[in-house]
Amino acid sequence: MAKTQLNVRVDETTAEAARQRAMQRGMSVNRYIEELVKQDAGEVGRTFVEAASDFMKQYESVFAEEFGTEHGTGQGKEQGKEQGKGRR
């Protein structure tokens, strides 16, 4: 993968911390920063999925009422109720 140069300005304390952390891990500062960004991007994705899952759990009954309980059938409220008679 081609690399792109990125210049950032940080205070000396942050720069020194980055240097030391990279050295402790046996990698360059560039690689250290790259890894941090990749981790952060991955966490954002996981956070989104977790939030979406929580939302679906919270509103599961609303979705079931509106769209039926048969997943992926495309059945709406009336079709789901019609087929759901006698199930329970």
Outline the fold blueprint.
Elements: H1 12-25, H2 29-58, H3 60-67, H4 77-84
Helix pairs in contact: 1-2
Could you explain how this protein is built, in words?
This protein is mainly alpha-helical and 88 residues long. The chain is 68% helix and 0% strand. It is built from four helices and no strands. α1 (12-25) crosses α2 (29-58). It is elongated and about 55 Å long. The N and C termini lie far apart (56 Å). The model has no long low-confidence stretch (mean pLDDT 81).
Structural class: mainly alpha
User: Could you state the order of secondary-structure elements as H and E?
Assistant: HHHH
Give the beta-strand count. Answer: 0
Estimate percent helicity. 55-70%
- Could you tell me the strand content as a percent range? under 5%
Question: Which oligomeric form is depicted?
Answer: single chain
Number of continuous helical runs: 4
Sheet having the most strands: none
> Rg from C-alpha positions?
25 Å
The low-pLDDT segments are none
Q: Looking at the structure, what is the overall shape?
A: elongated
Mean pLDDT: 81
Terminus-to-terminus distance: 56 Å
Concise summary:
With 88 residues, this protein is an all-alpha fold. It contains 4 helices and no strands. The longest helix has 30 residues, at 29-58.
List its traits.
88 residues, mainly alpha, 68% helix, 4 helices
